[in-house]
Specification:
The protein contains 3 helices and no strands. With 92 residues, the protein is an all-alpha fold. The protein has one domain.
Amino acid sequence: MSLRGVGVRQVAYKPPLGIGYSQLSELTASLDVPCMSNTTYNVVLSKMGDTIHDAALQEMKLAGEEERKFAIETGCFDDDGVPMCTVIADGQ
């Protein structure tokens, strides 16, 4: 199943709004637009979740590789010789 089309957009915009299939069905009915079945909704939602997870994992791996490279270039290592970067999480 491809992650393209109106159905996927319907599924994609619902979780951030805090609504699920039942509310989607009511919304599309009020707009006189056909709604996908609950089974299709769940398949699309699951596939979308997998796609987002895979993309996030890939980005985190790339960020880790960049941080490792930067740490090696700047000579920052922990006591065990593992490259490390100082991270400030609170923005100060």
